[in-house]
Design brief:
Length: 119
């Protein structure tokens, strides 16, 4: 099962046999991609998620897990970098085990957590 924030990647993963949750702020656009996936015999779910809203992300992931199961793939094309300057981003890697990794926008103080699984 994959969570994807990009239509082309969602279609590709669905064609490879994965169930795909298509997540974006524009739920009707997500639904159109899911309809294409389902018309081709795949399984999908459209979920409205604003990645700048932590609670919305948590709620979206809970909805996805409830309806499609635990994700094994995450493709995150969404972001909140306001000035598009990737060089201002830093990576924090707490600990060496599971946990999460985060990207911080130094100019705006925004942080996005990225869950990690132990291998």
């Amino acid at each position: 099962m994959a969570i994807v924030t990009g239509a082309d990647i969602a279609r590709r993963l669905a064609s490879d046999g994965l169930a795909v949750a298509v997540a974006d702020r524009d739920e009707p656009a997500c639904q159109a991609v899911v309809e294409e996936i389902e018309a081709a015999g795949g399984r999908g779910l459209a979920v409205r998620v604003d990645v700048s809203d932590e609670q919305a992300v948590q709620d979206g992931v809970e909805q996805i897990v409830t309806q499609l199961g635990e994700p094994t793939v995450l493709v995150n094309n969404a972001g909140i970098i306001r000035d598009n300057l990737l060089f201002r981003m830093t990576v924090n890697r707490p600990g060496s085990g599971g946990g999460s990794q985060s990207m911080e926008d130094e100019s705006h103080g925004s942080t996005q957590e990225v869950p990690r699984r132990a291998a």
